[in-house]
Design goal:
The protein has about 850 residues and is an alpha+beta fold. It folds into six domains: about 25 residues; about 170 residues, Topoisomerase II, domain 5, CATH 3.90.199; about 80 residues, Gyrase A, domain 2; about 120 residues, Orthogonal Bundle (Topoisomerase, domain 3); about 130 residues, no CATH class; about 160 residues, no CATH class. About 25% of the residues lie in helices and about 30% in strands. Strands 25, 26, 28, 31 and 32 form a five-stranded mixed beta sheet that branches. β10 and β11 form a beta hairpin. The longest helix is centred in the middle third of the chain and has 42 residues.
Length: about 850
């Protein structure tokens, strides 16, 4: 190797080493000094420098933000823009900075005015909790001219209260904000040795599902939703936002979902100012409930957030959970309180020490001893000798500094010396010293009292804004708008959305699945595409829903070219897309003679006509599909006949053979379900409806569709019995009298109001939906007289009248309470059990043909 080559290789190694060191230095700088907050005070460096700068300028009045930013540049080496942005973010959290002027809008995302136009000062909370120069550790600023705090002595879990987000080199952090009062309660619980749990709370409100929060650790997540309400049948209103989203974000995502055909709206309005109000106008043919689910499924009205609690502990980044952070913050607060008490104790003891020396110096007239002394050294010595006989009770030895301070006492103070007042001062100092020692000995109770005082002073307007709720899982295929028209070419075997010249079948969503059946007994499920080849001789095409046990398929088929004929009923609940399933038989030449798809398990009556055959006595067989059990799709089914079939005719339309659906209401997610969660509402058939009544006297009749939402608070939510009168006892605010009325709801009207008075003091006392109820009226005491309770048989007291009627006066006397007694309801008849379904992926055992319907007509 030549000398030049050796020199070149050595240079390359040195350069690569430099790059490695430089990168590590840069990464460490970004992580420690820019992007990741300290666990102890909750601040990134720029935020800490802003707070320190504001404390320097604090005089009780507002300062121009531009002035604060300029002062902060003494400590922060990255320019005014980054300081201004960071300061605006702190100000918008409404905890540490008292703002004045246009600081932007967290709801709309509008930016703040320029720094020269807006003003700020520290809040009382920040002044009390964040600063104490006596307990602050200091370091030199970047240019060495000033001192700045290493960590501010924050006595509160500020990191969790404000939340933080940052990206460093190879690291990121995302800690969600939590509720002020709940953090204090958690700190108190921790100090008492009790368990605690804390969850995020956002200034934008909304709803939050924390079932997978995982204590804020990496790998967990929360789901945040906007609060959407139905204002009327053609309008929805968004009043609260999910975390990290603005009204502009929501509107953009809604417009995009509309353009993609996922949802269908007429128009959208943004009326947001200091409160969120986004109006979504719907077309007449759209379900509001379904649209709400679609907004959560396809827009930013629901977002998933993954927390990542990375913080600086000492000089290292660490991944923690929020409980660990709260415990560390609480322990740090206790240590700061201890440090403050120790400093206070030392200062009190020093004050007591000098006050005692001053008393000795004046009371014993030691100052006279120095009148004839000529040198300064003799003055100090004379005072020291004069003090010695009187200092045995002092806490420490007398120092030269103490003597120098005695020489600074003015003659005026000596001449006005008041012994009684001095005794009072020293006694007061001794009381404070004892209290300080007591607090140090009882540090945990002292810390608990400190947190309680903080909550009492600053927690009044900091109630939880985000509602904790368990979210239901929304099936996107069920809520997507049918934005595509679907066609089929039955002769050539094509289906799709682009076959506009062929037969139109139905509207569907572009994320739906399509199920198809062919005459050879083959079933296949495909996605919605512009054009898909299925195969010739298509029998049936429809939208398929996973897990659908209500749709039942009835089929009669021939096994092979000359085999026997079988009949079967089955559901299709799970499949693999784009796979051919032979539902008739694998035998070549198998053919379906009869097929029907029944959305509610209907079972029809058909006639099977046989071809003429000398061995067959009757050539017509009537088949009632309700006699067949619903089995797996791979089941062979029951034998119809061994002889050739001419045709199959529909003889009579079928009725559902499935049991009524038992419907439950889950209070947690406020949705209906068929899984047995919550309160059983009853067994429902096709036209049955649910009755809801709210506090405003609004009665609604809604279907038992599992997609319906029930987000309001209801006085009544139950199965509607059409011929059962409703009873309402209400207080008329204008007449100040209780009325009672009985009425029937109009079955054709979905929304009906039955309280005639619109006076603001009118309220509903009781709603009764059962017969034979009675009311016990407890009267208020009038003029020192107590009237005996009165029993009222409601059905006899008033007859059924129209829904608009005022009703009858219940009593003319003042009422204290009304107690309602309702007899035990009769048990609802237990419906027949729904026929069992074989698991669709494991076919039922094949039938041997003995004892089947067809065998009765064979030879």
């Amino acid at each position: 190797m030549t000398e030049d080559q050796q020199h070149e290789e050595g240079s390359l190694k040195k350069v690569s080493g430099l790059y490695k060191d430089w990168f590590l230095d840069y990464a460490s700088y970004v992580i420690l000094d820019r992007a990741i907050p300290s666990v102890f005070d909750g601040f990134k460096p720029v935020q800490r420098r802003i707070m320190h700068s504001m404390r320097e300028l604090e005089d009780g009045r507002y300062n121009k933000v531009a002035n604060i930013v300029g002062n902060t540049m003494k400590y922060h080496p990255h320019g005014d823009a980054s300081i201004t942005d960071a300061m605006v973010q702190i100000g918008q959290k409404e905890l540490l900075i008292d703002t004045q002027g246009n600081w932007g809008n967290i709801f709309t995302g509008d930016s703040a005015a320029a720094a020269r136009y807006i003003e700020a000062r520290l809040t009382p909370f920040a002044l009390e909790v964040v600063f104490n120069p006596k307990t602050t550790d200091w370091a030199k600023s970047y240019d060495g001219r000033n001192n700045e705090p290493i960590d501010l002595p924050v006595k509160f879990p500020l990191l969790l209260a404000q939340g933080v987000e940052g990206i460093g080199v190879g690291l990121s952090t995302k800690i969600l904000p939590h509720n002020f009062n709940e953090l204090i309660q958690a700190s108190i619980a921790y100090l008492k040795g009790k368990k605690f749990q804390i969850f995020p709370d956002f200034i934008t409100g909304g709803m939050l599902d924390v079932s997978e929060y995982n204590d804020g650790e990496r790998g967990g997540r929360v789901r945040a939703r906007a609060r959407i309400a139905q204002r009327d049948k053609n309008m929805l209103v968004i009043t609260e936002l999910p975390f990290s989203k603005t009204t502009g974000d929501l509107i953009d995502s809604i417009v995009k979902a509309t353009e993609r055909g996922k949802i269908k709206i007429k128009k959208i309005e943004d009326n947001t100012s200091d409160k969120v109000e986004i109006l979504i106008h719907l077309t007449n043919d759209v379900s509001p409930d379904k649209t709400i689910d679609a907004l959560y499924a396809f827009t930013d009205c629901q977002v998933s957030i993954s927390p990542n609690a990375c913080v600086i502990v000492g000089d290292k980044p660490m991944f923690l959970n929020v409980s660990e952070i709260l415990r560390m913050n609480t322990d740090h607060t206790v240590s700061l309180l201890k440090k403050e008490l120790e400093i206070e104790l030392h200062e009190l003891q020093e004050s007591w020490h000098f006050a005692s020396l001053e008393r000795i110096f004046i009371e014993n007239r030691i100052y006279h001893d120095i009148e004839e002394v000529k040198s300064w050294e003799e003055v100090l010595t004379t005072i020291d000798e004069g003090l010695k006989p009187h200092t045995a009770h002092l806490l420490r030895a007398v120092t030269e500094e103490d003597i120098l301070k005695l020489t600074e006492i003015r003659i005026k103070r000596i001449s006005r010396f008041d012994l009684d007042k001095f005794k009072e001062t020293i006694a007061a100092l001794e009381g404070k010293i004892e209290q300080c020692k007591y607090n140090l000995e009882n540090l945990i109770p002292y810390a608990i009292e400190y947190f309680q005082n903080i909550q009492k002073k600053y927690g009044k307007d900091k109630e939880r804004r985000t509602e904790i709720r368990v979210f239901d899982n929304i099936d996107a295929t069920k809520v997507a708008v049918a934005n595509e028209k679907f066609y089929a070419n039955f002769e050539e075997g094509f289906i799709g959305t682009s076959l506009r010249k062929d037969q139109y079948l139905f509207d569907c969503s572009d994320i739906d699945d399509i199920i198809t059946f062919r005459k050879d007994g083959t079933m296949k499920v495909v996605k919605v595409e512009p054009k898909t080849f299925i195969g010739k001789d298509i029998l049936h095409v429809a939208i398929w829903k996973k897990g659908d046990t209500r749709t039942v398929y009835n089929m009669i088929y021939r096994e092979g070219r000359e085999g026997p004929y079988y009949m079967k009923r089955f559901s299709v609940t799970s499949i693999t897309r784009n796979t051919d399933y032979p539902l008739a038989s694998d035998a070549k030449g198998s053919q379906v003679l009869y097929f029907s798809a029944n959305p509610n398990g209907e079972a029809e009556l058909v006639s099977v006509l046989l071809k003429p055959n000398a061995r067959v006595r009757k050539n017509k067989i009537d088949i009632d599909f309700s006699d067949l059990a619903i089995k797996g799709r791979n089941s062979r089914g029951n034998l119809v006949t061994k002889y050739a079939v001419k045709k199959v005719d529909l003889k009579e339309e079928g009725h559902s053979t499935l049991a009524p659906r038992k419907i439950w209401f889950d209070e947690t997610v406020r949705r209906l379900n068929v899984d047995g969660r919550g309160t059983l509402l009853g067994s429902f058939r096709g036209d049955d409806r649910i009755l809801t009544i709210n506090n405003n006297g609004e009665a609604k009749l809604v279907s038992f569709d599992l997609m319906n939402r029930f987000d309001d608070e209801y006085l009544v939510l139950e199965k509607w019995v059409a011929d059962q009168p409703l009873t309402c006892i209400y207080f008329d605010g204008e007449k100040e009298i209780y009325f009672i009325k009985r009425f029937l709801l109009e079955p054709t009207a979905n929304v009906q109001y039955f309280v005639p008075s619109e006076h603001p003091k009118t309220f509903i006392e009781q709603i009764i939906t059962a017969p034979n109820a009675s009311a016990e009226i407890i009267f208020a005491k009038e003029k020192d007289k107590q009237r005996d309770p009165e029993q009222v048989n409601i059905d006899e007291f008033i007859s059924v009248k129209g829904i608009k009627a005022i009703g009858n006066q219940l009593t003319k006397h003042k009422v204290k309470t009304i107690n309602i007694t309702v007899p035990e309801p009769e048990e609802e008849p237990v419906p027949e059990e729904e026929p069992e379904h074989e698991h669709p992926d494991h076919g039922a055992p094949e039938d041997d043909g003995e004892g089947t319907i067809g065998s009765l007509f064979d030879e």
